[in-house]
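[step 3/7] inverse_fold.run input=structure_tokens len=166
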């Protein structure tokens, strides 16, 4: 069973072990493959409004996501998230659990919608997962991502209105 909780400082080592290979690969996130651990901590922990970890039965960190406003001021009612699942935990529903949790958490924090700004088109499993959770591709940015193996590939903007009251 996977549980979600707020990131604690003692989680950083495990979170970095999950983030580092993903960032270094340069296939799904726009951060430099040469990002330092300190820089990664800033973008994943310090900048977001909140960061969460998915924890397994033995207390191991399986994945992580952050939640933050997508824009400032007049666009701050739209949330943005980034998700990463550790290699050993993939295919076990961790990303789906984090997606569901992030939507509930976003609503609880007053967000009205959620937007993913750069879902890499070659990351088919992520695109399908977000669509299963009600996100729509509202735009495709041609060659907006410089994939380290494939060169320039398209990226999707995906969006979901969360506020059932309006």
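[step 3/7] decode complete -> sequence:
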């Amino acid at each position: 069973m996977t549980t979600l909780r707020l990131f604690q400082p003692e989680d950083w080592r495990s979170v970095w072990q999950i983030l580092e290979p993903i960032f270094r690969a340069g296939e799904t996130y726009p951060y430099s493959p040469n990002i330092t651990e300190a820089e990664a901590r800033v973008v994943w922990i310090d900048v977001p409004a909140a960061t969460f970890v998915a924890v397994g039965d033995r207390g191991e960190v399986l994945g992580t996501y952050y939640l933050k406003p997508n824009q400032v001021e007049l666009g701050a009612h739209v949330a943005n998230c980034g998700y990463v699942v550790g290699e050993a935990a993939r295919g076990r529903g961790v990303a789906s659990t984090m997606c569901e949790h992030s939507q509930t958490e976003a609503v609880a924090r007053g967000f009205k919608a959620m937007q993913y700004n750069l879902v890499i088109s070659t990351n088919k499993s992520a695109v399908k997962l977000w669509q299963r959770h009600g996100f729509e591709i509202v735009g495709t940015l041609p060659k907006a991502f410089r994939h380290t193996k494939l060169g320039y590939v398209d990226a999707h903007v995906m969006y979901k209105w969360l506020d059932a009251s309006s």
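[step 4/7] annotate
The chain has a mean pLDDT of 97.
Helices lie at 12-25, 37-46, 94-108, 124-132.
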